[in-house]
């Protein structure tokens, strides 16, 4: 693990006591305390510097200056066998420093603000010429912290190469996946450095970063520890936290199905040894990466209460917040290591206001128009801080709640979680219930065959929702038709009096056409009280329920199988949205006559989206990289949008010329807002 401490360095002609070679001082990242982030002036005397031709330094250096200091730097670079890049304004095109350099790039017109102080143009020159380092000379940008901050990415690349790819860039003050990027090469390191430092500054007020080796395809298992001020420390078993998206945990459980008692004890003892070594007194978590052979590697220690602490509380019976308060007051721990049990199994799902169909979860904002937690179910706990009418905004983490299910064993805990997810009512914002439910019923997850790459492995093309079996499809269609007929029958009554019947009393059957996933199905439905006999494409099913259409939850029995469904919307035109097995399905239901007439309706022309860029989420525009008239290629960064402290790069979908830009830095945008148009 390598620490990145951001600082800026400039060179002037004076004296450097260490007599180290000049090249070692070029825009190097200083491993010094955080207060050194102000500009530092490093002095160097020519008479005291020696050059060793065997030393490997840089292949190419860009001199971000002009005149005599640029010439001076170029001379030394030539002695050292380093190629040079000169920058110049248009009026300096024939200057001496331009002629001396191996390459030259014009960075703008004569005014210094548009040339030698033009950071964007100089950074583009660095990128274009592939310069490995920058010498600022003096004046201009030599003591500009912001400019140096951009160049710290070069140091990140150097460290990444030393460690060996792939690497992880992460905020030193952070957590929750914010300020964290994986890089597999130099280009990804530079991009990751930029986004991670910006996210870190935005989320934690601290843009310092760490670079460490990225271990591919591990499990993420952590040990809960508890220490007091009397030298006592305990490990409270482990939590399995491998199900993650964007390096943020989604599903956690305790204990881990993967660990054997010996490995659990070894990890716990090492976690406690670490806590004692630093005289830690509170609840804390020591995180490890674990490979397929049960080798474990220290990741970090979080000296706080973790989001997922409830699963530990469930299997140990301890109230961790209470223990933290007791320890803070100075009381010794009340338990010995032998007192810490593993009773049962607990699973936690993080319920977020986000769209799981977009990169496993892009933020969603809005007001909770209806909200009902499934706390009536056995073994279910919900930790939340919201209520009906609460707002989910772009400014904070989009977590709605932590849903915890506890059982005597893993099978019971997962079944209770499945029921809880089906019974959770969240209206007004998009949520990730569908993804959570699919994870916990997935065959690999149930077997315990998981890693931190689980989501990308199981859903390589992104999450698409639940894939219905033929039996499940028939159940959904039978439920939908029964809901449709039940609503039509209810509409025939008004204040206990019948209206004009929609169908003749002697007509006992409803012949319907239901469209699901662009496929038409013939469904024949008849009712006898609260039970409907339904024929779906030739298959016969019996559907019964109380048919309380005013309730957000509906318990339905289909041929002996109990299902909890939610009818999210019913429209006059026959469209209906039903949450079934966690996923929301849109069905379009028409009577046979209406279906025949619908064939003559004009279809809506689909919008051509190849030339437009819309915001995929609500957020704030951090930067815009293009202007009208610019040429962009497919994949070129157009702008950056920050949502819930996470920065997202918006790229061009095709090559073309920018026609118009509809946003600027600082703008707040909503999901679907037009950002940029291409010709």
TrEMBL record:
Domain (ATP-grasp): residue spans on this chain: 132-329
Catalytic activity field: butanoyl-CoA + hydrogencarbonate + ATP = (2S)-ethylmalonyl-CoA + ADP + phosphate + H(+)
GO BP term (any one): lipid metabolic process
Function as written in the Swiss-Prot or TrEMBL entry: This is one of the 2 subunits of the biotin-dependent propionyl-CoA carboxylase (PCC), a mitochondrial enzyme involved in the catabolism of odd chain fatty acids, branched-chain amino acids isoleucine, threonine, methionine, and valine and other metabolites. Propionyl-CoA carboxylase catalyzes the carboxylation of propionyl-CoA/propanoyl-CoA to D-methylmalonyl-CoA/(S)-methylmalonyl-CoA.
Molecular function terms from GO: ATP binding; metal ion binding; propionyl-CoA carboxylase activity
Keyword field: ATP-binding, Biotin, Ligase, Lipid metabolism, Magnesium, Metal-binding, Mitochondrion, Nucleotide-binding, Transit peptide
Subcellular location, record wording: Mitochondrion matrix
PROSITE patterns assigned: ATP_GRASP (PS50975), BC (PS50979), BIOTINYL_LIPOYL (PS50968), CPSASE_1 (PS00866), CPSASE_2 (PS00867)
Taxonomy, superkingdom: Eukaryota
CDD domains: biotinyl_domain
InterPro entries: ATP-grasp (IPR011761), ATP_grasp_subdomain_1 (IPR013815), Biotin_carboxylase_complex (IPR050856), Biotin_carboxylation_dom (IPR011764), Biotin_COase_C (IPR005482), Biotin_lipoyl (IPR000089), CPAse_ATP-bd (IPR005479), PCC_BT (IPR041265)
Required cofactor(s): biotin
Signal peptide positions on this chain: none
The organism of origin for this protein: Nannospalax galili
All copies of domain Lipoyl-binding, residue ranges: 604-679
GO CC annotations on file: mitochondrial matrix
Boundaries of every Biotin carboxylation domain copy: 57-460
Main subcellular location of this protein, as a coarse class: mitochondrion
Protein name: Propionyl-CoA carboxylase alpha chain, mitochondrial
